[in-house]
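Quick note —
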Amino acid sequence: MSKLNKGQIAIEYIVFIAIFLLFFQAVLKPTIDFAESVVTDVQSVSVSKENVSNLANNINSFESSFGYGRQLVFFYLPNNATITSCSGSEITYDINISLINPAPPNPPCKNGVCSLTENLYVGSNDVVCDVIGPGFVGNLIIEKNETGDINVSIQ
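Predicted structure written out below.
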């Protein structure tokens, strides 16, 4: 085997590796990016839903207790989630998700924003809360006044 043949084989290997890298970049990278976006969105939605559900449970249990007072609760929302309102019987929150194709089939998601609610069972009492987010890590104050109405605010 001559030196010229060895050089040709080395060049062929380099071309083969270049084609493989182009294939990886053109085909596999978009698939990996898509999967990463989906996993991030699912994680944000599930963490937000769990934490807002825990907040609703704290409000419900505090409302059913006798008397009035104040309760301090640690609360976490991902950076793409916001509690938009608390009105009477529900907490409404929005989660911004990636605009990827195919879009999620869930009806509450439109144009990259999922609007979700969590039910409250507070009877005839009123619940008012501050807008919390986007993203929040800290303490919330759940305050029940003499009439039984509840106010949720950031500490």
